[in-house]
Design a protein that fits this description.
The protein has 3 helices and 8 strands; from the N terminus they run E-H-E-E-E-H-E-H-E-E-E. It has 127 residues and is α/β, with parallel strands linked by helices. It has a single domain, classed as Roll (2,3-Dihydroxybiphenyl 1,2-Dioxygenase, domain 1), CATH 3.10.180. A hairpin with a 2-residue loop joins strand 3 and strand 4. This is Glyoxalase. Pfam families: Glyoxalase (PF00903).
Length: 127
C-alpha cells in the first residue's frame, strides 16, 4: 500500500468540467488543484480533493453504464452560518434541491452542481 495522501478524494462525474470548476471555486470555497479540462480537474477545500471527471476521463470511462448519472451520495460541507450561506448562494442563482431540514445533529440543505451532483451544506447543532 502506498503512503496516505494529504487529501481524501471523492470523484464526481460531470458533463462540463469547466462549468463544474467554476461552480465549486466561485460558490463553495474550493481552489483549483489540477486542470486537464475538458477531461478532468481537481478542486481542493481543506482535506477534500474533489475529482471532477468529464466523459473523456479515465474515471468516467471506467464507470459501468448503469451508474453514469449523478449519484445519490453527496459531499458534506460544514458551514458556520447556514442561513448566511443559503442567502449568499440564492443571491448568486445557485439551484437548491431541498428546503432547510433540521434534526438532532444540526441543519442541512442540498444544492446541485451543474451536472446534478448533490452537495450538502451542514451546520452542526449548537454552532
Amino acid at each position: 500500500m502506498t503512503a496516505p495522501e494529504p487529501y481524501a478524494s471523492v470523484r464526481y462525474l460531470v458533463d462540463d468540467v469547466p462549468a463544474a470548476v467554476d461552480f465549486y471555486t466561485t460558490h463553495l470555497g474550493f481552489r483549483l488543484g489540477h486542470d486537464a479540462a475538458p477531461a478532468f480537474a481537481a478542486v481542493l477545500r481543506g482535506p477534500l480533493r474533489l475529482l471532477l471527471s468529464g466523459a473523456a476521463s479515465s474515471g468516467a470511462r471506467a464507470t459501468p453504464a448503469d451508474v453514469t448519472g449523478p449519484g445519490y451520495n453527496r459531499v458534506n460541507l460544514t458551514v458556520d452560518d447556514l442561513d448566511a450561506e443559503v442567502a449568499r448562494l440564492r443571491a448568486a442563482g445557485v439551484p437548491f434541491r431541498s428546503e432547510l431540514v433540521s434534526g438532532p445533529g444540526g441543519r442541512q440543505i442540498l444544492l446541485a452542481d451543474p451536472a446534478g451532483n448533490l452537495v450538502e451544506l451542514f451546520q452542526p447543532a449548537g454552532s
